[in-house]
Records
---
Amino acid sequence: MRKIVLLVFVLYTSAQASPFDCPSLGDGDSLSQTQLLERLTHSCRYDRLERPITYTEKGSRLPVDVYVRWYIYFMQNLEAHDLQFKIHALLQFRFLDPRLIFRKVSPKRSQPILGEANLRDILWMPHIFLANERDSSIMGTNEKDILTSVSLDGTVIISSRITATLYCWMSLQKFPFDEQHCSTYLESWMYNTSELILHWEQKRPITFNPDVHLTEYVLKQIWSNESTINADLNDLRHGAFAGNYSSLSFTVQLTREVGFYVMDYFLPSMLIVGASWVSFWLQADQAAPRLMLGTSTMLTFITLASAQGKTLPKVSYIKVSEVWFLGCTLFIFGSLLEFAFVNTIWRRTSNVDVKKLKSKYILRSTLSPRLYETTTFRQHSADSVSMTANSVSERPHTAVNCKNYLTKPNMQTDGGVATEETRKFYEFDIGLMEEGGDENVHEKRNSWTTLTPQEISQWIDAKARVMFPIAFIIFNVLFWTFVYTF
């Protein structure tokens, strides 16, 4: 009961208040800007906590239209390891507040009322925030870097110089030949779309200072967007309030400059890979210089690759730069394996019989010399099976000729029957004897060539001098085609 009586008393007192409690707006031309603003924003006619209200012809309330403009003074390069970028910008809001119209009360004024932070503090402000910010602040001091303007028709313009660190998710699959799209989001905090709607200014809403230059990127394109964000209890960006909130965003497309990476990583890595091929011109028994050259190039390349990777976040997918470094590492490692292979062959003590001086026969004889010894033995064993005792006594020189070939003391056959290789050689030998006798057989057998381990090692090095550069050129063609095509 006491509360009801007190409320009635307060309402009665307000109704009987003197008109002098609410200052008059008459003769506004004789007032200073400060006096005029004090009367316009007096508590009897202005509530700073309540948004400006306008009505349609039917009497329904309209939301406040807030127009936004960005002017970018400075933009810092994207920091890939932190996935962020930094900007210094002028952020400007423009809206209409009918309560601040002073054209009629001060008809002689033609200029807007200007002020700084103190003027902004007595006016209603739309609560707008950067949705993807990591940090933001007013540049300089609050007094110096905030400009507030109130026009004759009640248009309020708030301009603030801010510095902001913004989050930008980067896709690094094609690093360092990548393009990044970084967005900046502005959203209404406490007023949903029924009370406040954000718009971009119609003319040049986003402008960059002509003196803005990025050292690592080139600014290709800018586009803006207006949208609505639906917030619920699962999304607390707008506090505990659910509803639809107005949002603005602008996106910049940045293309990375590859000159630095080409000069500091790609060209040096090509030279390091080429330096590893110098070992092919060194003799196979020179183990110390070849081993030192191979290991030094490998360690140098690993240091180069790790230096480049320190500036990037540890992502789960494979980047183009990693494909390049992996390919170059395989070429350097391949040169080390080639040295180990030819050095092992060089240290062999027995010669190798080669059927023909062709790559496949030389490699087969080198990789499996015992297999060729067994094959040769089976061929000569076939001779002994095909010859009768009489032919042996009539042609004693055959046994002398067989001394030119490797033999084994015994030959194992399956069930007393010669193997398929023995049978083929037997038929071949009989055919030669029918054509020209033992002289043709002897000539055919002597067509085999004996190579020393040193000759084989030199032959492998000679092939490597050609095959490694050709393979590396093919790798470069495939790599750079993928980079600039896909």
---
Amino acid sequence: MSDTEQLLCSLLKTIATEHDYKDCETKLQSFSTEAANHTSQLHHITLSATGKDDLKLFAKSAIVNENIRAQTQFEIFETEMFFYSELLKQFQEMEKHHNVPTEHRLATVKFYGCNREHLKEILVLEDLSAQGFDIYDRLKSFDWNHASKAVTELSKLHALSIAYSKEYPEKFDALYTKLHKDIDNIKSFLQIIINKTMMVIKGENKVKVGAFLQKVQFDEFKKFHMPSRRPVIAHGDFRASNLMHRTREDGQLEVVIIDYQMLQISNPIVDLMYFIFTGSDEEFRAKHYHQLLDHYYLELCNALTRLDVDSNEVYPKEDFECELKKIQPYGLIISLLLLPMVTVDDGNVRKLDVTDDINDLAINPNELAATRLNGVINDYVRLGVL
């Protein structure tokens, strides 16, 4: 048994004691989602005890080696443990204090415990898959039902962060440092990915994208993440693989946001562009792009109102539209960087080794990535960005 497995077993014993699962039987099944997760080993866990319902748990144990961590300097595991153990509790207290109806509260997964030891981090949560939830197929463009529901949940997260900034301004300001993600160290890695994706761009659009990238240099790219008129606690990796969904018996869709490893203080438009352009195809955006943006702003206003915050005061529509115009090009850049990873076949995912560095994660775009990417570029020509 590895050190991490021993730590997980020890953590599960603590959880069993805390929840009165005496002399329980523990079943552990490790699995991988391949391309949907590059940073963790995943585990389905069942705790069984006489006279009690089985406790279905889900655990993530870190697999990112020290070499890659030193290159990225992203404290992704610490960030996610902070969200579930501290920030989420404060969000839930705010929802309770403002009498937000249960159906309008942020849908989240229950936190059971964690191990914070460096390189051996473990996070234990409730197992949503045991309740009928599944991850949306990342190889398919999402439909309106899934996209609108996901954006509704995103609006709740952003609204809570805005309310948090008003109620606890000092704590919010401290998050600028705590949640900071410095991408300077991965500049060469990002350039490698760009070079690979540029090879599949069609015709004269390659020249247009090249000219755009010359204008939007690395320092300009970083500015997209800088909050301007309304900073929020952004998810930072808001894509289909980080959402779980199920359809209830009454036909209503439920969506739960997961994987808060890239949480950061940023611009709300960043999460929107990230979601739309990594998870949809050209046909979906032709029908729903502007509709989805309007839906987000409406749901954000509704969520703020339920938290007793005046949306016209903290984030009027003209501010949203101004930021949208400025941040919109981010969707093009994030497509160039992420679509090869989002659409990669499971069989082509590189297994991380202790000697790997960040550049080993660069993926050659497949046919689906090329199709999606060229569709994004067509959109940005129509939007007047290219």
---
Amino acid sequence: MTTRMRKLAVGVSAVTGLISSYVYMKYNNNEKIAYASWTTNYEPHPTAKWDYNWDHMEPKSMVNPKKLKGASGDNEFNETLERQTSKALRHIVLIRHGQYNTLGLTDNERVLTETGRKQAELTGIRLKELGIPFTEMVKSTMSRAQETGTLISKSLPNIPVTNCDFIREGVPIPPEPAIGNWRSEMKDGARIEAAFRKYFHRADPSQEKDSYTLLVCHANVIRYFVCRALQFPAEAWLRISLNHGSITWITITPSGRVYLKVLGESGHFPPSLVTSYP
């Protein structure tokens, strides 16, 4: 065998080995199915399966077919099912507040720094440039979020604004892996979970157009929301890092599926304005 032929054989063998290391075939009732070779799990792990009724708005869970009998009952069931089915998308855009004065002893003293104000202004400009037809802005009642929202409103002056205590900062759940003594601060978990249930759900069946809700809040709250919305272990929230003034975008489809479109986007800042701690 010539040197060139040996090189060709080695190359083909390497490619074949690479492909076989990624995919192998299984025959099930004469059906050829491809599986990833790095896992022996042919079926999704029970905890990885998607719960379509996570928001308690799955149409089939809201209609009792036993009350409907016969052909007319089938028609009524299908009509009722159609009435309970969402038609529009819900977009939740989450903004972390800008950098703030961490030396403040009270919330009133923990206002934005000069850097934080610039971050909020640039985030507002970025949101305007994206051309998102926001339905509403909801601000945490903490000072740094209030100020951030106000500065964003300069670029988005026509969006209705409300305030919400539920999305104030706090510790949602003990993180895994553990860090520090979080147990003593667990008073916020029920409130933040209530906030998730309030804002994260598929569109009401009566909603005809897609909606865009802008939440101006905090890193812990946003990280927890992301984990919960994607049905990841909620304890993983502290593994995510978010920059000040960053943009996170989650979309909920009529079927109940959830997509993370953007996580912690801060590319609209020059390097000198990129900060994350605390």
---
Amino acid sequence: MDLVKPFMDLHVGEASEVIREQCQELILSDKQIEEIMRRLLKEINKGLNKATHPEADIKCFITYVQDLPNGKEKGKFLALDLGGTNFRVLLIHLKDENDFEMVSKIYAIPQSIMLGSGTQLFDHIAECLANFMKEHSVYEEKLPLGFTFSFPLTQLGLTKGILARWTKGFNCSGVVGEDVVQLLKDAIARRGDVQIEICAILNDTTGTLMSCAWKNHNCRIGLIVGTGSNACYVERVDNCEMFDGPKDPNKKHVLINTEWGAFGDNGMLDFVRTEYDREIDHFSINPGRQIQEKMISGMYMGELARLAIVKFTRAGLLFGGVGSDILFKRGQFFTKYVSEIESDKPGTYMYCRDVLDELGLEHATDEDCANVRYICECVSSRAAHLVSAGIAALINKMDEKSVTVGVDGSVYRFHPKFHDLMKAKIRQFVKPDISFDLMLSEDGSGRGAALVAAVACREAH
């Protein structure tokens, strides 16, 4: 007897025929996945190519990170992780292979600074850095620093990154179009009291790959599936026409930050988008942008499920046609609800009932619960399959015999089936002679940043 059934079939007996039929458009066929892989690769090649880069959806930014950790990095390193309303400062002491000590502190960025001048922002960061170094008795030492900056950057080198645009509620004047590494250096110099050598600037995807590569030397892809979605991978320098500056003949590879959330912005994914996807895009703060991300990430998954549930309720197919004010309110069905509902054991609806109670749907029947769970499964499986299509395409493109994918992000971490769904789907579409593994990253944006600095120092000395 076959005990391992695909997840999509687990509760088929419970969801009603009509709901399954209505959800069909949320299920990607193998043929569609193959087409998505083909289109994604085409877009990646456009991003790598100088002539087509300007119109490419997937920008494939060069990170200038050309060396992966070999486990022999030693010493003390600072990391600065700026990606939202807080930032973290970390001190990492790498001792032996896989042995390290780490202390960190989170600092808030007041609203006035988020909307103030760039000078204010970087002075605030430099002050917190100096205080942190005092607290941890490294004030007198000259330490290398890795800077994770999770905003869209055009990198011109390992220590040169031009801010393309602010996101996430920031709007500091005098920073867009400027080199953020230089702005941080200037702020440190204005203080004149601490010695910090900024060795690298990177985004969280690169950090994820580096963090995993320190433990697992086969790591060639970094993936984020959280509030947003992005991936980076190892590419041959020969394929990177956008690589600017001197090329080292001994370094044949470089990390590429794909920024694949923007896949589909030019209509490439229209053939699999649904009315729910179009509605989410229409009401988002960036209509027409980040189309793939809106089908995958934690910022949108709950709302996708809610839109389907609302449609079926209004059609009389759920809850006897009686909804609730909360259900009908945009953004009130959180992505964590999807994970909770799918955590119920088959045939039980404990978490599902808790969620529906919170939404004011106490009148839900067992069949309603089964149908809601099926809708959630369709939404999360589609997200996992879209991610898998991208990862399989990258693994096949690199064509190495064994590849580890470092993964981070709340959706991958907390959804009960995301990992297994990805493993099965990637296996289906990766060349049969390639083996791969998915590895949960531990603190890519922190430890990964320190590791990029450590590797840069190893190379420089």
